[in-house]
Amino acid sequence: MALQDIIARARGRLRKLTGKSYLPYFAFDAQELDPAEATRLRTDASNDLERLIYGHNGRIVHKWLHYPEIYEREFACYRGTDVNFLEIGIFKGGSIEIWRKYFGEEARIAGFDIEPHCADYVEAPNRAFIGSQADPAFLESVIHDIGAPDIILDDGSHVAEHQEVTFKTLFPHLKTGGLYVIEDLHTAYWPGFYQGGYRRKGTAIEVAKALIDDMHAWYHHKGSQYAGRTTIKSVRFYDSIVVIEKGDIAMPQHIKVSGRDRPGL
After folding, report:
1. Residue-wise pLDDT tens digits, 138-159
2. For residue 187, how far is the Cα from the chain centroid?
3. In what order do the strands lie in the sheet with 232-238?
4. I want to staple 54 with a disulfide (CB 3.0 to 4.6 A). Which of 36, 42, 188, 250 is the partner?
5. Exactly one of 158, 162, 173, 186 is catalytic; which is it?
């Protein structure tokens, strides 16, 4: 079934049940791949992460089809290293299994979830913690245990308030040069459980937009809202994903060079 058909069916079912037109995350009727389709997708895959996902035979993985290309672009340089990777949201454990295969044996991979049973889905050397991403004390305890991450991937509750607390707490602990990724940003547009809405203050989309202003705080006098101007190297947007790269940024400088001022040029 085509994605647009899945969305239309989910939207129609939701209107009938609730009278509302927004689509909660769980409303998308994700189809489990049959073996023939998985083989076709694996054969046609354009990168290693797609091949790993479409060939996966472990625990359940639930991702949008366009995500692997994004993650291949952003994460490929960490493969075969001792990358310290923290994923928020364990679900059924399949995602962490994929990251282990992708990053390799030297990677340090951990995840946490608010549901206690999720710990049963994580096997050593991967690690699992149980707690709420809206609890700064818990978040600090995870960092104390695993050390400063190279990559933080927020695929947790998708609730705006939770995502904001998590970013404010964890971004300062991210290694310089590291990546903070928020996934499934489409939920930022959905009111109700996810506290979303178009341009609604405090959603992950609006936090990411504010980080652009923070990055450019050298040029305005409003100060920084979420991160200091010396810490944001880049903010990269994709459909439903934002990647915030942490840096150690010196004050920008500019020069003017003219060959006419240098003999022989």
Report:
1. 999 999 999 999 999 999 999 9
2. 13
3. 127-130, 108-113, 84-88, 151-154, 179-183, 241-246, 232-238
4. 42
5. 158
